[in-house]
Amino acid sequence: PATDAAPDAAADVIPDGVVTGEYEGFGAVTGGHESCPDTPAEVHVTSLEDDGAGTLREALSEGCRHVVFDVGGTIVLASDLNIRWSYITLDGATAPDPGITIEQPGDIGTTIEARSSTGAAHDIVINNLRMDGQASSHVNVGDIWGLDGESSPVYNVVIDHVTGIASTDGVFDFWEDVKDVTISWCLVMDTVTALHLSSDDHSQTRERISFHHNVFARNNERQIRIRHDNRDVDFVNNVIYGWGWFEGGGYGLGIQLDPGENNPSMNVIANVFHFVADLHGTEDDAVDFMRGADEGQVFFEGNIVPVGEGDLVSSGSRIDIPGHAVVMQLPASDLGTDVVPHAGTHFPTADEQALLAEIAAAL
Fold first, then answer.
1. SS3 labels along the chain
2. φ and ψ at 32, to 5 degrees?
3. Distance CA 331, CA 8 (A)
4. How far apart are CA 169 and CA 112, in angstroms?
5. Which end of the chain is more exposed for a tag (fewer CB within 10 A), N or C?
């Protein structure tokens, strides 16, 4: 592997083997239910059915709620599950063994979806869930916890220690007006187009987004893909394990150029892009940075990439991240031991454990 530069010596560093357990990044301005101006309700999920008394769907039918699980097991969705309210903590860490798996068969999606009728969706924390899209082909239908700010803004969101598998569309796609979000310590796997920050309405922006200490494995592309007007994206200490798993044209991180627009501003710091042989991707597709006069402010430092990757050339200086949103930073060389084993939900399956062990050994 090759590295583009040494990490900034002044950056915060996690001591070896230490996981803070606290939310970091731009989304950490929220406490989820704890940020509610009224006294939040604690709502217990006591049933693994799709709908009815004691179910997750009922628990998410109002805002200002701390949703906890008294049961562990699998919830099979019969229709889309959308969070349209604010001040919600969906606390999968409370579930007993084997944790909570949410299956999304067919074209069913899960979304944080602001609507004009209910207003913005904000102050939402989701942790320690396994989300299985069960996709066997790519049909661009249902997201896994997509953030949809088309009708009203979505902001102040944390998605942490979530395992997202085989979405029919994307995993944590950001759409239109989305701001102040943290995606951290997640495992995103087996998805064709993993994660996209984009918009049809080019007046809408995605701003102040932190991706830190995530593992992207066995996805074809978009780990992540960033397009149109995205501002202050901080991409730190992530592991991208292979690209081009399913078809030609796969890549790791994609930075799109759209002439005439305000193109992305982002930091790409101390990540590992690990090439896996015998896939459809090539070594120089770890980063796909389209260049041009409007290429934006993109800063690379301290990343480990395959020999031959030539796109890690900064187009601007490091973006200054405010103190409250700075994430603890490891050297990229330590991610195999200090990040990979801790990614995803708190009850990994045997297959997930084997995959994470494979990645850690490869790094």
1. CEECCCCCCCCCCCCCCCCCCCCCCHHHHCCHHHHCCCCCEEEEECCCCCCCCCCHHHHCCCCCEEEEECCCEEEECCCCEEECCCCEEEEHHHCCCCCEEEECCCCCCEEEECECCCECEEEEEEECCEEECCCCCCCCCCCECEEEEEEEEEEEEEEECCEEECCCCCECCEEEEEEEEEEECCEEECCCECCEEECCCCCCCEEEEEEECCEEECCCECCCEECCCEEEEEEECCEEECCCCCCCCCCCEEECCCCCCCCCEEEEECCEEECCCCCCCCHHHCEEECCCCCCCEEEEECCEECCCCCCCCCCCCCCCCCHHHCCCCCCHHHHHHHCHHHCCCCCCCHHHHHHHHHHHHHC
2. 65, -125
3. 10
4. 15
5. N
Lowest mean pLDDT: which of 113-117, 127-131, 152-156, 188-192? 113-117
CB contact at 8 A, 192 and 223: no
Q: Which of 277, 225, 280 is nearest to 247 (CA)?
A: 280
Contact 108, 142 (CB under 8 A): yes
In DSSP terms, 179 is beta-bridged to 155, 207
pTM of the prediction? 0.94
Provide φ and ψ at 331, rounded to 5°: -60, 145
The one-letter amino acid at 352: E
- Residue where the block lists tokens 């009815």: 52
In the block, tokens 């001040």 appear at 87
Taking only the tens place, the pLDDT of each residue in 217-271 is: 999 999 999 998 899 999 999 999 999 998 777 999 999 988 888 789 999 999 9
What b-and-e string marks burial along 193-216, b requiring 16 or more CB atoms within 10 Å of the CB?
bbbbbbbeeeebbbbbbbbbbbbb
- Residue 159 CA to residue 271 CA, distance in Å, equals 19
pLDDT tens sequence across 43-73: 999 999 999 999 999 999 999 999 999 999 9
Phi and psi torsions of 109, nearest 5°: -125, 165
Distance CA 172, CA 145 (A): 5
